[in-house]
Amino acid sequence: MKLSMAAELAVRGIIVLASRPAEKPTPLDELCRLRKLPRDYMTRIFSLLSRAHLVTAVRGKGGGYQLARPANEITLLEVIEAVEGPLAINLCQHNPPQCQEPNCRVRPVWEDLQKKIRSALGSKTLDELVCDVQ
Amino acid sequence: MKLSMAAELAVRGIIVLASRPAEKPTPLDELCRLRKLPRDYMTRIFSLLSRAHLVTAVRGKGGGYQLARPANEITLLEVIEAVEGPLAINLCQHNPPQCQEPNCRVRPVWEDLQKKIRSALGSKTLDELVCDVQ
User: Fold this and answer.
1) Could you tell me which CATH number the domain at A5-85+125-129 has?
2) Quick one: which of A91, B25, B62, B112 has the fewest CB in 10 Å?
3) Predicted structure pTM score
4) What CATH number should be reported for the domain whose range is B5-86?
5) pLDDT-based confidence at residue A94 (cuts at 50, 70, 90)
């Protein structure tokens, strides 16, 4: 039971944006340097975050990335789902399910656990997670 | 945030044992046939379950696998940890942590979530999950 590395890095990266002035875009190079994040991989991750409308790319001089919405309106769950796809902790929790064994008594356990995880991640917004970055 | 395929299959496999008479070992071939589980992969998974003292291999004619303890004394968490290793939902939740960023405000979120997952999985025992197998 594990967060993907893509989601782990997406959370770290987007928190840097949430920790800086909203009106000032952060170049990806600078963001990676601040948190020792792998540059190539972060290009792909920020492209996914942008596609999910969580961050916006600002082109040109003084450009970079900024949050697409206020930090208190973006949840950890949204960040994770932007890179992992819809939360599905195992085969039967996909939509549609990838396992539909009839009368399975483990399925309600996964369902309940998935709800708990969604609730925990969906109730945390980026403004609560800002860190000390220059 | 996802269960590994190894853990998913381990849970399915061990539940077959929990669903059959405790004193009658189940050959791995039969177990795989009952739940359409991949034979080669299950050999490795049952070897891990055996190493974790959750199942016992009975050799010879009429041999196979049986639970090493009563089903109500084996939790889902133990089954998952037997194949995935100690539960660590992300880098900072390993022991020792693989990320120790000072003053990180996401870490308590992961810590709390990991506790919730441990608690949910640690409170479910195999006797609650038995299914209808021949």
Assistant:
1) 1.10.10.10
2) B62
3) 0.92
4) 1.10.10.10
5) very high
Chain A contact probe: residue of B2, B123, B126 with most A CBs at under 10 A:
B2
Count of A-B CB contacts under 8 Å: 93
Q: Report yes or no: A76 and A14 within 8 Å, Cβ to Cβ.
A: no
Contact B8, A1 (CB under 8 A): no
Cα–Cα nearest to B72, from B121, B127, B10: B127
Q: What is the pLDDT of residue A100?
A: 84
> Where are the domains positioned within chain B?
5-86
Q: What is the pLDDT of residues B23-36, one digit of tens each?
A: 899 999 999 999 99
- Taking only residues 21 to 60 of chain B, the set having a beta carbon closer than 8 angstroms to any beta carbon of chain A reads 35
CA distance A39 to A33: 9
- Stretches in chain B below the pLDDT threshold 50: none
| SS3 call for A57 | strand
Tell me the nearest-neighbour CA distance from B77 into chain A, angstroms: 10
ipTM of the complex: 0.92
* Confidence band for A47, pLDDT divided at 50, 70 and 90: very high
SS3 state at B79:
helix
CA–CA distance, A31 with A28 (Å, rounded to integer): 5
C-alpha distances (whole Å) from B77 to each of A81, B33, B67, B107 are: 25, 25, 15, 22
Give the best residue of A83, A106, A131, A133 to mutate against chain B (max B CB count within 10 A): A106
